[in-house]
């Protein structure tokens, strides 16, 4: 009898082991793909948040903020109206999945904007003032990550704000 080949049992054991390894490999590849997509969403959301903050802060500095008011609009969960010294008025609209400022719209890739924890405060101590607006961004409820948008303006008083007088 010639013993150079595989028996049927050896062949079945080999195929079973290879199948088990392949199942784990496909599961690992799926996890890596999901983590990569999650990472890309977080990077894009962070870049959008930085861009929005930079644009609004630049307007505060260059155009000299004169007045801030909260406003109400249909379909908008948070609204702020900024009036500048040159009379220009710009609004920041916060919807559940996007922000709009000066006719520019930034969509949130993952998560949602929330009014829970939203803060708007204005402190004026005579010569100086502090304006702080915090807009909560809730990403992935299961890991409780919160990425807020914070707008802060400090300067000399020439500016009026309607709203909270203390933080």
Describe the protein's architecture and organization.
The chain is built from 1 helix and 12 strands, in the order H-E-E-E-E-E-E-E-E-E-E-E-E. The chain is 33% helix and 35% strand. With 167 residues, it is of the alpha+beta class. The longest helix is centred in the first third of the chain and has 55 residues. The termini are far apart. 14% of the residues are buried. The chain has one domain. The strands form 3 sheets. The protein has a 6-stranded mixed β-sheet with strand order 5-4-3-2-1-12, with helices on one face. The protein has a 3-stranded antiparallel β-sheet with strand order 6-9-10, with no helix packed on it. Strands 7-8-11 form a 3-stranded antiparallel β-sheet. Strand 4 and strand 5 form a beta hairpin.
Q: Strand portion, in percent?
A: 25-35%
* Average of the residue pLDDT scores: 79
Stretches where pLDDT is under 50 for at least 5 consecutive residues are none
User: What proportion of the residues is helical, as a percent range?
Assistant: 25-40%
**Total individual domains:** 1
The helix/strand class is alpha+beta
Separation of the first and last Cα atoms: 91 Å
Sheet of most strands: 6 strands, mixed
Order of helices and strands: HEEEEEEEEEEEE
Let me know the number of strands: 12
Number of helices: 1
Looking across the biggest beta sheet, what order are the strands in?
5-4-3-2-1-12
Q: Round the Cα radius of gyration to an integer and report it.
A: 27 Å
Q: Based on Cα principal axes, name the global outline.
A: rod-shaped
């Amino acid at each position: 009898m010639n013993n150079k080949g595989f028996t049927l049992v050896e062949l079945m054991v080999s195929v079973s082991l290879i199948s088990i390894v392949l199942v784990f490999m496909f599961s690992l590849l799926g996890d890596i793909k999901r983590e990569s997509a999650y990472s890309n969403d977080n990077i894009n959301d962070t870049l959008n948040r930085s861009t929005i903050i930079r644009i609004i802060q630049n307007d505060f500095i260059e155009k000299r903020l004169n007045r801030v008011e909260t406003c109400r609009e249909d379909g908008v969960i948070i609204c702020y109206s900024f009036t500048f010294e040159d009379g220009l008025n710009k609004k920041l609209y916060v919807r559940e999945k996007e922000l709009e400022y000066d006719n520019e719209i930034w969509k949130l890739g993952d998560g949602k904007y929330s009014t829970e924890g939203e803060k708007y405060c204005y402190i004026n101590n005579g010569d100086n003032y502090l304006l702080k607006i915090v807009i909560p961004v809730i990403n992935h409820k299961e890991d409780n990550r919160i990425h807020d948008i914070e707008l802060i303006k400090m300067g000399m008083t020439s500016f009026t704000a309607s709203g909270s007088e203390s933080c």
